[in-house]
Specification:
The protein is of the alpha/beta class and about 270 residues long. It folds into 2 domains: about 10-100 and about 175-265, Rossmann fold (3-Layer(aba) Sandwich), CATH 3.40.50; about 110-175, no CATH class. Helix content is about 35%, strand content about 25%. The protein has 9 helices and 12 strands. The strands form 3 sheets. The chain has a 6-stranded mixed beta sheet with strand order 8-9-10-3-11-12, sandwiched between helices. Strand 4 and strand 5 (about 75) form a beta hairpin. Helix 3 (about 115-125) packs across helix 4 and helix 3 runs parallel beside helix 5. The longest helix has 16 residues, at about 190-205. The relative contact order is 0.16.
């Protein structure tokens, strides 16, 4: 998949999105697209607005201004008499069902086994039978290398294993889009690779993904498009190979140099 793939309407279209939190404007007129099958990596220093943007795509937070479309549908709102009004939480939850999201801190249900965590949403939201949900969950746990951990509870799993269960849980809803918010930031360095390998395999399968990450080397391996943010705006966006090896913005060069130095010290 390449950044040049424009033969159809983008799967994700972010149009002039602004978001204020308290006195701070966190997002300032963000415009971005992601096409079917693309992997878009969001990079930049802490406080740049990357995670907030991801949360707006999934309607965990709603923009103060601007719109997010996924597969042509405005997320979190609907048109009414030439204006947009916010949907109810139930309607937003229905939209969110087709967008998988993996957070920094796993968010698994501690009282449920790995298998139960994966089958919960398909049964509760999509009203699938236990048999159907279980069969898919077993396939997904095998896909993320945890077939033998189906009956294990989160407290008996390493951080990397918990994050892989979280990925399987998101995939169980058969999403058209996957969002990852710093999926390895809560992991010890020696556990990071097992989670990144799962995400690489998803990228190879053609899953459309938007990934917030601080792992520059990882972004180089999987990203079709690299987006660098700073102070709530996009300062650079384009082919990942170009942005990550030949950046044109001085702030991007400074950020990449600092990130690579940090990686070398770990």
């Amino acid at each position: 998949m390449t950044v040049d793939r424009i033969d159809r309407e983008p799967l994700v279209r972010i149009s002039n999105v602004w978001k204020k939190r308290g006195p701070n404007m966190v997002l300032k007129g963000i415009n971005l697209v992601a096409h079917q099958g693309q992997v878009v990596c969001l990079l930049g220093p802490s406080g740049a607005g990357k995670s907030t943007l991801l949360r707006c795509i999934n309607a965990i937070e709603l923009p103060d201004r601007g719109l997010v479309y996924v597969d042509g549908v405005a997320i979190g709102c609907r048109r009414h008499n030439n204006r947009f009004i916010r949907l109810s939480e139930a309607q937003i939850s229905a939209q969110r069902a087709s967008i998988g999201m993996v957070f920094q801190n796993f968010n698994l249900f501690p009282h449920m086994s790995a298998l139960e965590n994966v089958i919960d949403a398909p049964m509760r939201v999509r009203h699938e039978s236990r048999a159907v949900a279980t069969e898919r969950a077993q396939d997904l746990l095998e896909r993320v290398g945890l077939k033998d951990k189906a009956k294990s509870f989160p407290r008996h799993l390493s951080g990397g294993q918990q994050q892989r269960v979280a990925i399987a849980r998101a995939l169980a809803m058969q999403p058209k889009l996957m969002l990852f918010d710093e999926p390895t930031s809560a992991l010890d360095p020696h556990l990071t690779g097992e989670v990144l390998d799962v995400i690489k395999n998803l990228a190879s399968s053609g899953m459309t993904m938007i990934v917030v990450t601080h792992e520059i080397g990882f972004a180089r391996q999987i990203a079709d498009v690299a987006v660098v943010m700073a102070d709530g705006v996009i300062i650079e966006c384009g082919h990942a190979a170009d942005v990550l090896t030949r950046p044109t913005d001085a702030r991007t060069r400074k950020f990449l140099a600092k990130s690579l130095q940090h990686d070398g010290q770990r």
